[in-house]
Amino acid sequence: MSETAFVGTLSYEAANIDPAKATLTVRERERDPRTTPPGLSWRYLDATHVEITRAPGFDRGAIYEFIYPAHNPEVMGIGFAAIRDLVAFLRHDASGMNPLRGVIRHTLGFGVSQSGRVLRDLVHLGFNQDLEGRRVFDAIFPVVSGSRRTFINFAFAQPGRYSRQHEDHAFLDDQFPFTYPVLADPLSGRTDGILRRASEAGVVPKVMHLDADSDMWAARASLVATDPAGMDVPMPEDVRIYLASSTQHAVHKPDAKHAGQLPGNPLGYTAWMRALLIALTEWVETGTPPPASCFASRADGSLATREEAERAAWIGRRQWR
Fold this sequence. Notes:
Distance between the termini: 50 Å
Order of helices and strands: EEEEEHEHEEEHEHHEHH
Structural class: alpha/beta
Low-confidence stretches: none
Largest sheet: 4 strands, parallel
Number of helices: 7
Number of domains: 2
């Protein structure tokens, strides 16, 4: 293979490997027009792999979009039912098959990043109610999930794919509703919230939600605290949201290699996370109120629109000069 060629693995098997039924385009940035410049070529290696030859002027960091007919989509979402049924079994089954019979007082769901998104979708899709109508998790604690959910309730879903600051914006882990209270979405016309189904069924869990600073950029975390118009949204009584300022999604060790000009930020959010986990346990066990929500907001000026932020940055650059 030449230095200008690379192999891509298809998410689902091609239904037909006739080249005439597929297209490949390239662009440098997402908003650039899709192009098929001279020198760009591709070929099927088999039904799940394609070899792409880069066009001059485009490296592996460019966006190569391959559209093809696929088949055999996999059934997704069974894991939600498995989590629901396992927790319900451990909580309530009185037979000798239950190793924790009579021991569990409460159940708390804890997840970081993608598993945090799973918790949000589990509650949103109605899986916090077991087959007997009982609450599954008394509380959930999604950590660094941002406003994202899971790209799972779709044909040809790809649960491991998620949109980031510069990449994969078309993947459907960004879906309304983004936050916990019920809101109206002016784009889709839908009215929904992460807790809507649980509220209607009487199985609402207590919620603690913790994001890192970088999730504001890479995971649209502002949508946890605002409506689609960008205005502050009050949280329900059983929800607390927190932002760990100056931290990032994954902690970088001081001696780790870094790809940018500057080293990664070694400051993490784990100290806040552990303290909040204790507070969440006490909230569920004894009813002790946890700390009030502490998140960026429009009201106190800690959350700005893009235009406001760009204007402040422009003024700052002028003053620096």
